[in-house]
User: Fold these one by one.
Assistant:
Number 1:
Amino acid sequence: MKLVNKKIKDYTQIFHLFTEEEWTRTSKNFNKNISAFFTGKKNEVFINVQDQGIAYFIGLGKADLQPFEIQQAAIKFAQTYKGKLLAVPTLVVGDFMIEKQFEEFVKGLLLGTYTYPFESTHAFWNAKFELHFENLSQKKLDFISLKAQAISNGQIACQEWLNKPANLKKPDTLSLYLKNLSKKYNLKYTVFNRKKCEELGLGAYLSVNQGSAYDAAFTILEYKTTVKNAKTFGLVGKCVVFDTGGISLKNPDNMHYMKSDMGGATAVLGTLIYASEMNLPVNIIAVLPITDNAISENAFLPSDVITAYNGKTIEVLNTDAEGRMILADGLSYLVRNYKTDILIDVATLTGSSVRMFGDTCGAMFSNNDELKNLLIKTGDKTNQRLWNLPLWDIWKDDIRSDVADLKNISMKPIGDCIVAAKFLEQFIENHPKWAHLDIAGVAFGNVGYAKEKAATGFGVQLLADLIENYH
Ligand code: BES
Ligand code: MG
Ligand code: ZN
């Protein structure tokens, strides 16, 4: 795709963008019959075959729409018509559109080409696909083009890995991908195998991994800027490539969805791709504790007491509460070994958060009001919403154990997403700016590109926006 600020005369494709108001104002310039089919409502598309070429009239909805709604409309448009659209110079007409709106439109076109398995052979990814838009300077268009491709590459990588079936994303396959990705983007790549994890004392992570047929892969990816005094973000992404529940085996009815239990990690992965392609003036230390949660003769058992990286002991009462185990070590390893300004962990952590919010928002927990408010604001802006839940100390009582410092579940049938967050708080080593995002209900769900539930890409645009605009 290329963005060009010249108006072209001989186009074969034209995208006419309208809000309802804009259509009312300008419809008189068009064949009056069109109004019988087109009003400018969101997701309305009218196709008019004209002498010059094919005109797509694309409805965006009310004039006061938010930028993300333009992205949504563009995604829908691309998903519906992607088989028909041509890789040719295309004129875009939408005089009312400001820079941010056009940016969202372009992002939506690219994101809307995604289906599993992804093929970047679609017309929109072809250099011959030129979008001609004369309202913005070439400099601004170049920046929009860079940004739209960076966010699409990040989110598509996120969706692609989440959508892969379990047999195509064993820990070693994922590790190989991350290693190559690090080469491509010049990230520092570190991986600790089982032996190294034992030496380091990453006991909580290892307790989950010990039942796996695959070696441990406690992974650290570092993106560094040369800009001085840049902020450093610590990101921990839950990376359970498949969660059977372990010995506390899950019910099989919905078990196949547990290929999505790496949704935290893929959100972090997408963010790293975005930061790298945009060359953002920040540092990111990403910790991805990779494992499956398998059943085997070596699997950890309910009643096991294990020692975490920070020395705290944990009584395992349910092996299906494995995410908080691996995140515990991910968090304390990151805090003890790196200096970070902001610490965020992202995880498909609890069914409890799904029962609470469904697919409407992620559950957020934070010990810092500034970070909390910024995350809520960024979530609203990117339409990857978060809602804040409490971390009151009364919840700590529920995870006190008789035989260890902590137990990994409360045994009460209430508030498990809060209990899990309270558990994680015991491993942040007093970091002053931490947020935990439980995205179990939003990472995988109903999408426009698949019949069944699939990856939504939740978290990439949220974290990318947060990091890019953090001061
Ligand atoms: N990966 C699951 C959480 C989950 C549930 C993600 C639904 C996506 C959709 C997590 O590891 C888990 O199994 N949690 C248990 C904890 C329980 C045993 C305390 C749960 O929520 O049922
Ligand atoms: Mg589990
Ligand atoms: Zn899990």
Number 2:
Amino acid sequence: MSNLKTLGQFIIEKQSDFPYSKGELSRLLRDIGIAAKIVNREVNKAGLMDILGESGSTNIQGETQQKLDVYANEQFISALRSGGECCLVASEENEDIIRLEEEVSKDANYIVAIDPLDGSSNIDVNVAIGTIFSIYRRKSTTGLATLKDVLQKGVEQVAAGYVIYGSSTMLVYTTGKGVNGFTLDPSIGEFCLSHPNMKIPQDGVIYSINEGNYVHFPKGVKQYIKYCQVEDKATNRPYASRYIGSMVADLHRNLIKGGVFIYPVTFSAPNGKLRLVYECNPMAFIIEQAGGRATDGSRRILDLEVTELHQRSPIFIGSANMVKRAEEFLATAGNLTFHDAEPVLTA
Ligand code: AHG
Ligand code: MN
Ligand code: MN
């Protein structure tokens, strides 16, 4: 008991990191932690409850929504609504921004962008999934908060985090002063500080990319993959390939062990697949705070201009030296150069 520090205690202790803070951000983080516990309860019973399977609706990107996607979205939004610190939510599951201002206090100055359930294709198969969140301060000073208040560069984030519902459930977050990880102790229902001051190794031996899309990758990415597979004792190659298909889980492992996660542009996804506002930016903030690197292949993710809520971006993120090496291959090959004709294997 003596060494136990709960998420709630930690957040309160850290409040003094922000001079003049009135505790709103602390309350907001606490609210997200509570919603995460509720979602975790449902995730854990996914195999038992009538919550598996498709809900029958699709989200704005045309993807089939799983019931847990919908459930998680509702839980996080309602926690933010009742918490009263957030004036506007942007979610992967909602085409438009969700205004809470009229329901919460006029002093609610925070904006939350969220991917309520990341890795939804893994729900039905008992593989780790997650939640990603990003917090901004409202910029506009009069009237209702608008879409523009969400379209801030990643560098403006005041906090970001993720929850991983894995073999154990963890909440990892940053407020720009390092990264701390908390493991849920189900016996007491509390997130407890288990991974203080997380740092990602500068080098690693894991590369994470959906290699099934290989023929659709730019030349530089193909060459980097081949580089990872070449035998070289000095650099510990060949590297290990590890790809779960839940960005949160793939990045969590790479954060702890060292590694690079890549979701590049492809022929079919010319802007990449992952979403800048609620996937790339929060993860980039966390990984940079842990000493890693995150770019779109050449530009820092956190500096990218944000023009649309559901904007996509390619991403190269993880151990700094691995990301840099991948960027070198892209620069040499020309970032967006694809092979001319792709080989077609016939039966
Ligand atoms: P989401 O479940 O929120 O739509 O996100 C899925 C994302 C991300 O978690 C994962 O890294 C990636 O999609 C996997 O995509 P592929 O199946 O194309 O590899
Ligand atoms: Mn996602
Ligand atoms: Mn999602």
Number 3:
Amino acid sequence: MSDPRSSDAHADVERVLVSAEAIAARVDELAAALRRDLAAAGAGDEGIVLMPVMTGSMLFVADLVRRLPQKLRLELAMVSSYPGTATTSRGPRLALPVPQGLAGRHVVLVDDILDSGQTLRFLRGEVLRQQPASLRAVVLLRKPSRAPADLPCEHVGFEIPDEFVVGYGLDFDGLYRNLPFVGVLRSPRR
Ligand code: IMP
Ligand code: MG
């Protein structure tokens, strides 16, 4: 980092891209849209499974589920694509097996960001093989210049430029997940 002595994650941020207030307002809207969607799909009777992609979507899913009044289950997908200080995806790698028992369930994949789309494409395939009653995905952020056009993603919080971002769950080398906003780090990162 530019100042390796700083112990304050905020000090390494060059600029805030999405404020905590904007995130909160948008999560309200995403939750409302999801409620409508799930109701329209006939989801009920405990059939809803939210599958957050760990670790990045931890903060997002925590805020999202508290705005969903339906009975639902949380099943974690443990995927990592950015080992260590890498800032380009090395492709999704499973840290734990994909949750099973999704047949007949209404599954909602929850991720922090849709970048190359490899993570979402992989998980969609894994879930669809189990024949869920329905499948949708919600991501907080999308880099439209990178996300493949053929990959469905039903709900997107914010479209952002193709920059490496941290905060609100997103990390660089495991750090900065605790920032309450999404921002860009000061360079150089290494
Ligand atoms: P994809 O498979 O390329 O779509 O990448 C998705 C995963 O890469 C996300 O779940 C994030 O964990 C991570 N990722 C992608 N872009 C960023 C970024 O700008 N900052 C931090 N992590 C990112
Ligand atoms: Mg991730």
Number 4:
Amino acid sequence: MHIREIHVYTAPLGAKKTYNMSNSTVETPVSTIVAAIDAEGLVGYGEACLASPQFQPAHNGGVRASLDVLAPAILGHDPKHVTTINASMNRALTGHTEGKAALDIACWDLAGKQLGISVVDLLGGAQMNDVTTYHVVGISTPDEAAETATRLQDEGITRLQLKAGGRPIHEDIASIHAVAGVLRPGTDLAVDTNRGWSTAEAVHVSQACSNIAMSMEQPCATEAELAQVKLQVGHPIIVDESSTDVRSIARMISSGLADGFGLKLTRLGGLTPMRAVRDLCMATRTPMSADDAWGGDIIAAAGVALGATLDPQFSRGAWLAHPYHDTHYDEANGPRIVDGFATLPTGGPGLGLVLDRAQFGDPVAVYR
Ligand code: 0XW
Ligand code: MG
């Protein structure tokens, strides 16, 4: 059954306490929610929410503007035909992967509901039902960072992402050592600078932390800078912001630059391109995350669905934003972190969420 209408809604997702990265602070991003409605009245939901105007070259108003072009490009399509739907969106508009991601995810949700099966099964089936996740330790003093890391490990979290950058690097080095001092056996530490260091600073930090088992996530701004750093440090390099599409990811795998990826559904364009990247990473034994920079239960459910299909050995986790904003679209079924793992939604086919369009208020746009 074809897509008959697309409705667009907004949802403010304010950080419940200071959430900062090297180049930005998350305040109250306004998420974009799309509802793809078929001729039978079934509804598939998608979402895109940029954490801040600085995190990646896009912003939330631009997501909604892009839908003016993208939504008409997929009306009348069968939501199960995600390949032709993505081709149609790419012919209609270059780039703007965030709006494409919201529509793509809505198609996967709607297809699952039409077929009566989960998105996880549509993606090939779960290799984990308790899905690996990771938790952020924000930019803070060494004592605060160590205290947060201790609390999170007490809660069962086994993957920590320590934010760094945007301050004198001796402060970053002190926080890294403080967190390393409370790491328990089996806990993985990534230091995520969100492009914040220069190449010289990244090399300096790696040397100052040479005895610490950690990875360096997007220490510098560009792929070329990461390549320079890769040759000079002993720590694995995780690529996040520079992993913009299948082509760049394949290049960084084949060049040996990337020891792993921090992948965002909205930066890649949704579940369809993320599925291609997953297959490439699993085939090359390259660890990857399955997450996004911010958002509610819809984007979280999409990330956890993809994350569940990863080989556990090469999963860096599916990250959930709700611990940092406390907003749920589906209180009963949305993904949660329980004993250090993310749960899969249990509300039925598709993404497994039970939603009502009315809960998002009046649509800000309708395409039919
Ligand atoms: C930790 N995240 C998934 C959430 C932040 O918004 C950014 C992102 C990252 O890994 O950089
Ligand atoms: Mg990152």
